[in-house]
Write a structure and sequence with these properties.
The complex is a heterotrimer of chains A (135), B (144) and C (273). Chain A contains three helices and seven strands. Chain A has 135 residues and is of the alpha+beta class. In chain A, strands 1-2-3 form a three-stranded antiparallel sheet, with no helix packed on it. In chain A, strands 4-5 form a two-stranded antiparallel sheet. Chain A has a two-stranded parallel sheet with strand order 6-7. Chain B is α/β, with parallel strands linked by helices. Chain B has a single domain, classed as Rossmann fold (3-Layer(aba) Sandwich), CATH 3.40.50. Chain B contains five helices and four strands, in the order βαβαβαβαα. Helices cover 36% and strands 11% of the residues of chain C. Chain C contains ten helices and six strands. In chain C, β4, α3 and β5 form a beta-alpha-beta unit. Classes of the chains: A alpha+beta (135), B alpha/beta (144), C alpha/beta (273). Chains A and C meet through β1, β2, β3 and α1 of A and β2, α2 and α7 of C.
């Protein structure tokens, strides 16, 4: 029987509250607020308290899905990324870079958001970058 | 001028005693206030605090919890829980700043039709004096 | 001075834990790591220099979870007075098996007792430290009867309007273990509304806390809106004592009075019906 609490950051907003995921034998069993965390000071909002709910949710995607003949079918990351690169390349060539927009999220880290805007501006060549918090 | 305030009262009544008593009052053509909305439960012990609170939230100005006298409960001791629970909830209402007299516990048996009339009339007047509950809790914001 | 006192308390606790780990499967206590301080289960051979006693978490919840998941596990727990009170109320309701729990009780400091307004800042199973004097009661609770009904209403409306319905108070409470919680039932608490004009959310909780609240203060500590919940729950505790002579967490043999008959737990006050 292994019991541990793993410190992590809530993914649900830019606040970044500290919380512990309680893990018993490699299974997440609950959430504790991190009382020594400078930002959250041992408190959480309803999203933070339920931050671990998506991990085992039956609707959670575990593999990329590609639409084939109108149906979403499980695929590998290589397949998915190759398809994305090919299609974005085609759209950019046919309709220009500004026909593509990229939307990011508060759930992403700053580093991921930086990469996304670099992908948009340097690789695709568009300034059409936005973020879910602006919607 | 405004319309005179008619208190809205929700009365939880146990099936075996009070509801039967209320029924008998009706059969005997005794008049009891139309302000009272009866809700039949199998036992007064079934009435949880959340039911009472929801009744207030839904617009009741007063809530009655009625059942069998101690010793006469159809389920032996269901009303033992009621007699402990209701005073506690009355006190809590008082602590929260809501007049505890808006909640009343009364035992009314099937044979006590006149008592049913007396209690409902008395309580309606008590709540009329207290005024609408909405006035008491009016100034709290609701953020939807 | 306080630091020295606390250090000697912690050292004393670590010593007892080391001894007990010889026969127990684990001891529930707080552990300090580079990530902070969190509940932990120390096993035999673990580095006990990492064992801490603050900041407080409701550790009995961990015991309850593990007792239910592992029917044979035998645990110890480093417990304050409030932890032990939580244990007594949980054991009465079959959430913890008292035969599989060894309580390593320690006393709070006088400052802690004051902060928590604690009337019993040391457990009955006291193994480390000496009980300090009880903390003075919360002045708001003491003077509560002097407040008029209008003042009380204004006080709570100002407080409840801040509530974000995070359910932190319910989540952190050691006594809240119901799988189907009335506060989540759309029949009673309307989803999507914050601070309804009639405080159903908070009053349901306060009623459910009667006969359960052991005054551990975790609810108030976890509330992001700093609502003084313990004022309301202390008043319910006072009523439990006056009406039913019951103080949660003190007597393992006293049945939860609201669940049993008048013969088993009589009213101490006449109630008119």
């Amino acid at each position: 029987m292994e019991y541990k609490n793993v410190l992590t950051t809530c993914v649900y907003c830019g606040c970044g509250c500290g919380l512990y995921l309680e893990v018993v034998d490699d299974h997440i069993t609950g959430v504790w607020p991190a009382k020594t965390h400078a930002v959250s000071q041992g408190k959480l909002c309803i999203k933070g308290w339920n931050a671990a709910d998506f991990v085992y949710h039956p609707d959670r995607l575990k593999t990329p899905l590609i639409r084939k003949d109108g149906e979403l079918v499980e695929a590998t990351w290589d397949e998915a990324l190759s398809l994305i690169a090919e299609r974005l390349g085609t759209i950019k060539a046919e309709s220009g870079p500004n026909s593509i927009a990229l939307l990011s999220s508060a759930k992403c880290t700053n580093e991921e958001n930086y990469l996304l805007q670099k992908l948009a501006r340097a690789v695709i060549g568009t300034n059409n970058v936005d973020h879910c918090a602006r919607l | 001028m405004g319309v005179e305030f008619e208190p809205r009262i929700v009365a939880f009544m146990c099936n075996w005693c009070t509801y039967a008593g209320a029924d008998n009052a009706g059969i005997a053509r005794m008049e009891s206030p139309a302000n009272v909305l009866p809700i039949r439960v199998m036992c007064s012990g079934r009435v949880s605090p959340e039911m009472v609170l929801r009744a207030f939230r839904a617009g009741a100005d007063g809530v009655l919890v009625m059942g069998c006298h101690i010793g006469d409960c159809h389920y032996s001791s269901g009303n033992h829980r009621t007699i402990k629970r209701v005073p506690l909830l009355r006190n809590l209402l008082g602590y929260a700043g809501i007049n505890p007299d808006r909640l009343r516990l009364a035992w009314v048996s099937a044979a006590e039709a006149p008592r049913f009339v007396k209690v409902t009339k008395e309580f309606t007047e008590t709540v009329r004096e207290l005024g609408p509950l909405s006035q008491e809790v009016a100034h709290q914001e609701v953020r939807e | 001075m306080i630091e020295e006192l606390v250090l000697s308390l912690v050292e004393g606790i670590r010593k007892v834990v080391a001894e007990r780990l010889e026969e127990l499967d684990g001891v529930v206590a707080l552990r300090r790591s580079s990530e902070g301080v969190a509940p932990h289960v120390f096993r035999k051979g673990d580095d006990l220099s990492e064992l801490e006693i603050a900041p407080r978490y409701p550790l009995m919840t961990v015991v309850s979870k593990l007792h239910k998941t592992f029917p044979d596990i035998r645990l110890g727990i480093v417990a304050r007075g409030c932890d032990e009170r939580a244990f007594i109320e949980m054991a009465k309701r079959d959430q913890i098996d008292p035969d599989r729990l060894f309580i390593i009780g320690f006393a709070c400091t006088e400052e802690e007792a004051q902060e928590c307004h604690c009337s019993a800042p040391a457990p009955q199973n006291l193994l480390v430290g000496t009980a300090p004097p009880p903390g003075p009661p919360n002045p708001v609770v003491e003077k509560y009867d002097e407040m008029t009904i209008d003042e009380r209403r204004a006080f709570w409306q100002r407080q409840f309007v801040k509530c974000l319905k995070c359910y932190g108070c319910r989540n952190i409470c050691p006594e809240c273990f119901c799988e189907a919680c009335a506060m989540e039932d759309a029949a009673w608490v309307e989803p999507g509304l914050l601070a309804p004009p009639f405080p159903v959310f908070h009053l349901i909780r306060a009623m459910h806390m009667a006969s359960r609240c052991v005054a551990c203060r975790q609810c108030e500590l976890v509330c992001p809106a700093h609502i003084p919940l313990t004022v309301l729950y202390d008043l319910m505790r006072r009523d439990m004592e006056t009406l039913l002579g019951y103080v949660p967490g003190t007597d393992m043999d006293a049945p939860p009075p609201l669940s049993v008959t008048l013969e088993e737990a009589p009213l101490r006050v006449a109630v008119e019906a």
